[in-house]
């Protein structure tokens, strides 16, 4: 299996831990991720002009050269998918193609890494590599843009793919009513008070389940829930102490990979208690 | 007691050109079919902080309440989570409505933390091709001195090797420059055709 790979900006910065675990896990799985040369930012939620935003993603999609395009980020995934929908409008497509050095025909299929593992590879195949079934309980947290707007690889209301992945790894996915509720990440910089209160709601609900960790699929959710967890604790005067790990890190742990190789030492919330449970 | 007084709508405050402009867009086409059921507002994780909930916003577009819409915090508080959009029984997409209202607000001279950050973000991507977090935050902090409070947080990321100080760059950003200027060039053409009508896009340009 081979994919064109679009890491997105965060993989070179705040999501370097995610990046490490993606490399390690995909190597074990034998899935080749060939990074696009000279990729550009997808515009996230901050390039307000719609035409420019579509054009940024069109340029990236064009660079996939006939392969499916793999992305680790919910935000990039959403922008790429939406660009393809926008490209169904021929006049917009022609206008943007005039600007691009290489024209894009609208045919590249963007895929989130979770989709690749659950749908393309399949969980049975994934299970063949498990060396250390995880005897833990985990919160499956999908965030917003992995499943919304509609027509993604999983349900926008009650997605199951991450739940199934967690079960396959030997762990128990807890029932979590906020699995697709916004974490507040997109407004963290401009409206921190509101962003932290959204994260607090997620944590309170996660703590009630008695889970050992939350599992995420997006660098922005991780920044908000791991790096900002301390800020939530002090703002609301509550103790959370909830490890937040990427789904690729969870897979890596079940594969018996070293936690440092998976970037787990780079988290701001300590994962020691979780690791002790995993190796026990 | 919670105070729940909202100013009554007066016909003079309606702007039908604004209304028609929104209704003509892909997003706007379904807006007249809204049944005010409120699923959008109920699904929104942040509607309690909004001046007007998504349900109210849709009604306000129907009425053409340009000034109230563009001056409200609603469009800037939206986290773009699309919960409202996937649930609307009329297939109206309030998230995308917020998205088209933002550049119009900016063109009308609305300035706030969000518009500032968005401008800086676009600028960084246009010049370097990538959104390096350190560069973004540094530039934003120069315009928002309150960000100094975040310095310890920034340091904690730097210590973990998660905030590289050197910006990530792609090669050949001329293509991106063209991408970011597409709107401007389109508007110039439009202006030639309709010199009398001052569009919001030309105002964006003038505001630069």
How would you describe this structure to a colleague?
The complex is a heterodimer of chains A (280) and B (208). Chain A has 280 residues and is α/β, with parallel strands linked by helices. Chain A is built from 11 helices and 8 strands. In chain A, the strands form 2 sheets. A 4-stranded parallel sheet of chain A has the order 2-1-3-4. Chain A is globular, with a radius of gyration of 19 Å. Chain B has helices at 16-24, 39-43, 54-63, 66-70, 74-77, 83-87, 94-107, 113-128, 133-143, 151-159, 174-193, 200-207. Chain B has 12 helices and no strands. In chain B, helix 7 (94-107) crosses helix 12 (200-207) and helix 8 packs across helix 11. Chain B folds into 3 domains: 11-107, Alpha-helical ferredoxin (Fumarate Reductase Iron-sulfur Protein, Chain B, domain 2); 113-159, no CATH class; 174-207, no CATH class. Chains A and B meet through helix 2 of A and helix 6, helix 7, helix 8, helix 9 and helix 10 of B.
Please, how many helices of chain A?
11
Please give the CATH architecture of the largest domain in chain B.
Orthogonal Bundle
Q: Return the CATH class of the largest domain in chain B.
A: Mainly Alpha
Largest interface by residue count? A-B, 55 and 55 residues
Which strands sit side by side, in order, in the main sheet of chain A? Answer: 2-1-3-4
The gist of it:
The complex is a heterodimer of chains A (280) and B (208). Chain A has 280 residues and is α/β, with parallel strands linked by helices.
Topology readout:
The complex is a heterodimer of chains A (280) and B (208).
Chain A: E1 2-5, H1 16-29, E2 32-35, H2 50-62, E3 69-71, H3 74-86, H4 90-97, E4 110-112, H5 113-127, E5 137-140, H6 161-168, E6 172-173, H7 192-208, E7 213-216, H8 219-227, H9 229-236, E8 244-246, H10 247-254, H11 272-279
Parallel strand pairs in A: 1-2, 1-3, 3-4, 5-6, 5-7, 7-8
Helix pairs in contact in A: 1-10, 2-3, 5-6, 7-9
Chain B: H1 16-24, H2 39-43, H3 54-63, H4 66-70, H5 74-77, H6 83-87, H7 94-107, H8 113-128, H9 133-143, H10 151-159, H11 174-193, H12 200-207
């Amino acid at each position: 299996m081979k994919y064109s790979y679009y890491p997105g900006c965060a993989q070179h910065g705040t999501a370097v831990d995610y990046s490490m675990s993606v490399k390690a896990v995909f190597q074990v799985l034998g899935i080749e991720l060939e990074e696009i040369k000279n990729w550009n930012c997808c515009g996230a939620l901050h390039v307000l002009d719609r035409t420019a935003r579509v054009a940024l993603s069109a340029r990236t999609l064009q660079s996939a050269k006939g392969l499916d395009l793999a992305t680790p980020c919910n935000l990039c995934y959403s922008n790429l998918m939406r660009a393809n929908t926008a490209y169904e409008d021929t006049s917009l497509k022609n206008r943007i193609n005039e600007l691009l050095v290489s024209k894009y025909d609208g045919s590249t299929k963007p895929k989130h890494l979770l989709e690749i593992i659950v749908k393309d590879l399949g969980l049975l195949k994934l299970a063949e590599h498990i060396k250390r079934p995880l005897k833990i309980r985990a919160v499956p947290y999908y965030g917003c843009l992995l499943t919304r707007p509609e027509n993604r690889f999983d349900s926008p209301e009650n997605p199951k793919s991450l739940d199934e992945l967690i079960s396959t790894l030997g762990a128990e996915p807890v029932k979590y009513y906020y699995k697709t509720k916004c974490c507040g990440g997109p407004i963290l910089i401009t409206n921190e008070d509101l962003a932290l209160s959204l994260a607090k709601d997620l944590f309170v609900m996660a703590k009630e389940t008695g889970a050992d960790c939350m599992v995420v699929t997006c660098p922005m959710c991780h920044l908000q829930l791991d790096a900002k967890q301390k800020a939530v604790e002090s703002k609301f005067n509550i103790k959370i102490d909830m490890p937040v790990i990427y789904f690729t890190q969870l897979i890596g742990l079940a594969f018996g990979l070293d936690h440092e190789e998976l970037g787990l030492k780079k988290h701001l919330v300590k994962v020691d208690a979780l690791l002790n449970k995993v190796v026990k | 007691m919670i105070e729940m007084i909202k100013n009554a709508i007066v016909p003079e405050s309606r702007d039908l050109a604004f209304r028609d402009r929104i209704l003509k867009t892909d997003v706007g086409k379904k807006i007249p079919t809204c049944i005010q059921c409120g699923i959008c507002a109920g699904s929104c994780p942040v509607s309690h902080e909004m001046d007007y909930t998504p349900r109210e916003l849709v009604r306000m577009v129907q009425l053409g309440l340009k000034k109230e819409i563009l001056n409200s915090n609603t469009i800037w508080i939206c986290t773009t989570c699309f919960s409202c959009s996937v649930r609307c029984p009329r297939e109206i997409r309030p998230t995308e409505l917020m998205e088209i209202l933002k550049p119009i607000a900016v063109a009308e001279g609305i300035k706030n933390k969000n518009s500032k950050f968005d401008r800086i973000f676009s600028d960084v991507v246009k010049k370097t091709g990538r959104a390096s977090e350190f560069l973004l935050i540094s530039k934003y902090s120069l315009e928002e001195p309150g960000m100094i409070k975040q310095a310890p947080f920034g340091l904690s990321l730097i210590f973990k090797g998660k905030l590289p100080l050197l910006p990530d760059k792609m090669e050949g950003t001329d293509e991106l420059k063209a991408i970011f200027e597409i709107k401007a060039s389109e508007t110039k053409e439009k202006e030639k055709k309709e010199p009398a009508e001052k569009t919001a896009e030309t105002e964006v340009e003038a505001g630069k």
